[in-house]
């Protein structure tokens, strides 16, 4: 499946040679069993994955461990940035400048990885480190300027969204189909374009641009951003599920970790914005 992320349209687990399946895979011929040679086929009786028939294929443990490494790197660098880069309430511009600089470096690393034929763990962990600096400084600035409770609210909100989407996906309340994928991509493209236009108006016109990031409109677009992030979580879960089901190489687990990390960052930033607006209205 060629899943996507708010930052860029990344390479999924599908292959042109038919190695794995997903939205880009060719349809199965009538009468064929897509799990006939699948090393991670599901046992119809128990619903549990069967033992792999060959080594070096991706498992859920691989995805979990690499996601833990990626998120762990992000959390550690965020904590260090918060502690070692104190925020001056009288000069928040410097803090935001550091955050933007780290965010831009992280974005460049994302672009570099997107052009690689295989996942590069070093690039992914470096992305997590710079993204951690971005989130750490940004969170410290928000905590100083608005209130310390906002950051914890954003963290809890992100965790709740992740848990809710995972539960809904496991219960099959969310069905990731071509139509779902197309809708999410179209909605995300429109959302990003609106935010870019708003940013341009803010840069050249001053203030908050078109007002999409403050007040009632800010809350509305923040909620839309969280919903889109939740949809991308479902796409990420589908990507991982397809990779395991169709025997993706173990190294592809890094792509799953990369995707989940970027999506969680997206949701956290939107949550931080929502709770900042709500706290500012108190």
UniProtKB/TrEMBL annotation:
Residues 1-46 are annotated as: Disordered. InterPro entries: BaxI_1-like. Signal peptide: none annotated. Residues 26-40 have a biased composition (Polar residues). It holds the Pfam family BaxI_1. The chain crosses the membrane at residues 68-87, 93-112, 124-145, 151-169, 181-204, 216-235, 255-278. Coiled coil: none annotated. Keywords: Membrane, Transmembrane, Transmembrane helix. This is Membrane protein. It comes from Streptomyces virginiae.
